[in-house]
Amino acid sequence: MNRKKNKSNGKKVLITFFVLIFLWIFVFYAYITYKNIEINPSNYQTTKIISTIQEQTVESVQQNSQKVADVIEELTESVVGISKLKSAGSSIFSKSTEEELGLGTGIIISDNGYILSNEHVTGSKFSKCYITLENGNNYDGTVVWSDSDLDLSISKINAKNLKYTILGDSSKIRVGESVFAIGNPIGFEFRRTVTSGIISAKNRSIKIEEENRASYMTDLIQTDATINPGNSGGPLILPNGEVIGINTVKISSAEGIGFAIPINIVKPIIESFKNTGEFQEASIGIYAYDKEVVPYLDSNINFEKGIYVAQITKNGAADNTELREGDIITKIDGIELDTMNDLRQYIYTKKPNDEIVLDITRGKINRQIKIILGRKQ
């Protein structure tokens, strides 16, 4: 009996011993593990870093907003009012005559008085228009160049030391970029109105029907920045103040759909006037359309790249050459063409009597044709 009792007590002691050993090992392991845990100070900094970033972001946004406001404020000095009719007062921003004047917008592109706008604002070449600067000074202007297909014009006033706009690169714009439009949407009371939006799309083509005549504008920049009557001819600008387009039309049946002409198309002409005081416009003597417009004309005409020759002007540069109506021009002097503006922009860099080489496709035939450029009348 005692032997059994002693054996039972021995088991209890042994179990207790192992339990104590286990507890000691567990406590020791937990102590060592806890002791070796490194508290990373950066864990405590995370909240501060995030807070700092947020504070910097808010501050950065405020600073950027202030910079944009400064840029726009400075740019408005280069925005002018334009009318085809002369005011009886000292300025075309006269309150009593704004409706009669049909006020539009333009931008100063040189310090010696060249003004860029729409042709439908200033009138065609050699027309007279009347221009009021930001300081209220009024000038007689003469249209020295215009293009009805592009709806662009350049006028000249007799002035010096003007603040002019910086032109950007419209080939590098991206859909979704912020833009601002500046113009004179109604007249005196709302002159130099600034609206904001984004670039909604690029390379848009639209059909315009006026006076029983259809025309097409291609390679346009689409924006949702508000454009109203009177904004025509005003700049579409990036937040850094660079002009990337000239506002021209809006879709009247919808809100938030306006269009601007890419600035690159007119750069060679501007440079010529600034450097030489003139522009000798070369002409290839054709009416052509890119693939975005051709479906309006004939749904059976299909091509991937190039420009479709719809008509060759009689006695023009291309007349009596190997070029034919229906040809697709794919390159000019080795430069690939996708839109009519690609062709125009290149021709604007040439002079009358310069020779060009066109790569064309005619059905399954590919060939090169040389043409001596003429002078546009």
What's the short story on this structure?
The chain folds into three domains: 81 residues, Thrombin, subunit H, CATH 2.40.10; 98 residues, Trypsin-like serine proteases (Thrombin, subunit H, Beta Barrel), CATH 2.40.10.10; 96 residues, PDZ domain (Pdz3 Domain), CATH 2.30.42.10. It is 27% helix and 33% strand.
In what order do the strands lie side by side in the largest sheet?
Answer: 1-2-3-6-5-4
Percent of residues in β-strands: 25-35%
- Unreliable residue stretches: 34-56, 96-100
Task: Write down the secondary-structure element order.
Answer: HHEHEEHEEEEEEEEEHEEHEEEHEEE
Note the overall shape.
Answer: extended
For CATH, the homologous superfamily of the largest domain is named as: Trypsin-like serine proteases
Helix/strand-derived category reads alpha+beta
Helix content: 25-40%
In total, the number of domains comes to 3
The tally of helices reads 7
Oligomeric description of these chains: single chain
Distance between the termini: 134 Å
Q: In angstroms, what is the radius of gyration? A: 35 Å
CATH architecture of the largest domain: Beta Barrel
Tally of strands: 20
CATH C-level class of the largest domain is Mainly Beta
Instruction: Enter the CATH topology name of the largest domain.
Output: Thrombin, subunit H
Q: Taking all residues together, what is the mean pLDDT?
A: 81
Largest sheet: 6 strands, antiparallel, barrel
